[in-house]
Structures are given as structure tokens and as C-alpha cells.
Amino acid sequence: MTRRERVEWTSGVRVTTKETRIALDPVRGGRLEKGVHRFISHAHADHTQGLSGCGAKYATMPTRMIYENLRKKQVKDFKELRIRHPIRLDDVEVTPIDAGHMLGSIQFKITTPNKTLLYTGDLNYTDTLTTHRAESVECDILLIEATFGSPFYVFPERESTYARIVEWSTHQAKEGRVPTFHVYAAGKAQEIVRLFNIYTELPVVVSPPISAANEAYSRNGVTLRYKTLDTESNLDFDGPFVYLTTPSDRLVPDRSERATATGWALRNGSGRFPSFPLSSHADFKQLVEFVLSTKAEKVYIFTGYADPFASYLQKRFGIDARPVPQVVQKSLLEFGL
Q: Is the CATH code 3.60.15.10 the one for domain 6-152+282-336?
């Protein structure tokens, strides 16, 4: 290991100092060399590869609960992180910051002897029915995901989307149909369960994977009222109800009227069935607001619309912003801290 501090994109973000090696959301968790500290931002499957294999694994307790409930396997050598409680690893301090994306989701503020780095992972910069908006902190270098980093993706007010979902669903129920939502098991599903709990009298029925994630939410203070579908024979319930299941699940009630809820609805609004623009990610305006609030000297952008978002920040605000190449076979990005 060199004496120089550096950040690299090597199957995820790597931070290396004289004494410490950190992997942020590694995508090949089982292949990390010995002595690397694995930090996991949240429980979605594309961010949890680092929870497998050997080595110390750092995440919030809700992230661990959701992962274990969905995967049915235990995380070994787990180190609990709590929001705004820094931990020390030799010459590096890591502070978890709320990311607002889903229950337990966090950013990582990494303080080295020379610089401060903020890594966001997936980020939501507005309040939802189950989460508070992400917290921003000042830093020297920002690494941020830009899933919706195009000016095309500006979402309607969340309350407006909530109203549209409720209106459509209650209409389907009155017509004798079952409003059926195909959504991610963790994060989006719990927000929609909560939406119907608060604004309607419709009972909510969920598939087993969503129920497993609901349990983790309930154990962490998010009140959810729902029934779990146990077997195929239980698809028919008496009276109107809402059914939630995962995107790949095609086992739905006979009277189903299907829908989705995703930020991509702005692009795919004329699909086979209704799609509501409800996202757990920041939209373009929120991303810009977040970047400016950090006062970062350099911004490195990954995922989604990294190139146009970097270009916009450069031209509009004069920010030193660059996309991170999305190739995982070897290190492509290296810069001194």
C-alpha cells in the first residue's frame, strides 16, 4: 500500500490511505482481499454484495434486518453503524449520514488526514411517508449517484402522485377489480402500504417477499397494516383490497388491474398498464440542490445520467464535475485526496 491517499473505482468505490482500506458498496463482495473494510449503504440487492464473504461488514441494523429477512441468510462479522455516530479506523473517520432512500439507507462521510469525502449511494432528497429527506453535509470531494441526472426527470409533487394512486385504486376497487402494484419488495412497497393505510380504508395484501421487508420496517417503528399472502389459494379475498407484489411476480388475483410506481414512469408512461412517477431517488432538481449544498470542490458522478449531469454542473455552475467510468474489471479512476 502506498503512502498516497487515493480513491478508485474498482468494482465499487475504494478509499485507500496509509493505514486503511475501505470498499463502499462493493459489487464483488466475496472477492475482496483480506483487511478491506466493507461499507454497505442500503439493503437493495445491487448494493449488498459486500454483505457476503469474509471480512468486517459495516451497515445500519435496519439494512441488516431487511437483507437477512429477504435473503434468509445471516450476515457474519457485522459491525453496526448508527446515523451521525462516527467510527474510527486507524487514520480514517467514517460518519454515517441519512440518505433518505429507504429504511436504514446511509451516505458515508469519510475524513482522512487531508480531505473529506462524501459518498451518497442511492439518494432521496425529499420526505416520504416512511423516510426523511437525505441530510447534506459539506465536503471537499463528492461521489454521487445520478440515476435521474437528466433535466427530463423532474417528478411531480409527491402529494399529487399519492392522490393519483389513491384515486386510480379506489376506482378499480369500486368497479370490482383488484388494484395490483408490482414494486420493489423493500422501500417502495412500504411507502405504498403506508399510503393506503393513511388515506384509504382499503385492506392491503402483500406477497411474502414484501411481507419480509415489512417486518423489518415494523420492528424499526414504521407502522404498517397489511395481510400476507401465504399460498396461491389465498389470492381470493372477500371484499375489495389492494395487492402488492414484486416486479417479476405474475401470480396475481384473477380480477387484477396492474400498475407500477417508479421514477421511470416519466419515460414509460404509455406502457401496458398505468405507471405512477413515485421514486425513492432524487430527481434532477433535487440532485442539483444537493450538490450545491455540499460545497464540494470536486464532484464525481456514477450511475444513470452521469455524463449529462456532470456537463450541466460544469457549464451552469463551474463545478469541477466528472463522470466515473462504469467498467468494473479494473481500476479506471484514481486521484489524490
A: yes
